[in-house]
Amino acid sequence: MKQIEIQGETKRSTIMIGECLKNLSNYIPSQDVVLITDETVSRYYQKDFPEFRAITIGTGERIKTLDTAGIIYQELLDMDAQRSTFIVGIGGGIVCDITGFVASTFLRGVRFGFVSSTLLSQVDASVGGKNGVNFKGFKNMVGVFNQPEFVICDLNLLKTLPERELLSGFAEVVKHAVIEDRDLFAFIENHAAKALALDQTVLERFVHDSVVIKSAVVNRDEKEKGERRKLNFGHTFGHAIEKTTGIPHGEAVSLGMVLAASLSVRKQLLSEKEFHRITRLLENLKLPTVLEYDKKEVMAALKKDKKREGDHIHFVLINGIGKSVITEISIQELTWMIDSR
Ligand code: GLY
After folding, report:
1. What CATH fold (topology level) applies to the domain 163-339?
2. Contact predicate 318/264, CB 8 Å
3. Total-model pTM
4. 136, 137, 140, 317: least buried by Cβ within 10 Å?
């Protein structure tokens, strides 16, 4: 097992890569614990849960709402949960986001941790301390910064992941490599086939290196005042495409990264050759690099982005593979760019 620490403003978070769900009891109190999970994770892994009361929610991005949070608050009240209650989210990004949000707000905040069960949540969603829910279809519009006490990334749980969900995780691993780590990028290029075949050593390196990159950035800028914005590479267009087409997060981020990389080429920051390395890698990982979508709808969604300030948006470009720059780009330029593709 490998451990990586995040020191938040008020709390420390330990990310454990290679630790197992079966050892969860070692990290939580012996009583007064509530588990939050979803129907799928419960079906496969309830047998390995410690014996505490569990709240089971549905699946899918659509349920990541204030309504679902309200249902969980009610269940916690019915269970007579107190300020001393410890909450553990066992699941993917949706379970972890809702758990973090509920735990941070119920009775003004109780202790919490995560067992992260999907590749996407192990490399991104459960790490970093952002916990939020969607509002009126817009992603993570309502939320808090608050670090979980621990995140267990159990690689064994990835064996039951449907392929499309695995691919979503690959997109975020590629993102980390593109913005920060040329060596990781070359490693993914050389091991794409093994990753698709769920080779444990390769997946462990993907999760480990992603968490190292993300936690280092979060340690320097937890509240996203500056540097942390680079983790949004591919997400400005990505979130807008996800909202308008309904495709999975990682696929939308893959398309968003292609658009951001293409803009980096136009601005003479990235060579054509490196642009093609990026698109080839995404294709080798079975991620989309082209898709027909309604450009007007995508731009309308993009205008609601949290990163927009007036007519501009904080946008991440790449200055060669492994280096990113945060710039301000006008909505007009992004509209022109998407129209001209
Ligand atoms: N919890 C996800 C993040 O902080 O980025």
Report:
1. Dehydroquinate synthase-like, alpha domain (1.20.1090)
2. yes
3. 0.95
4. 136
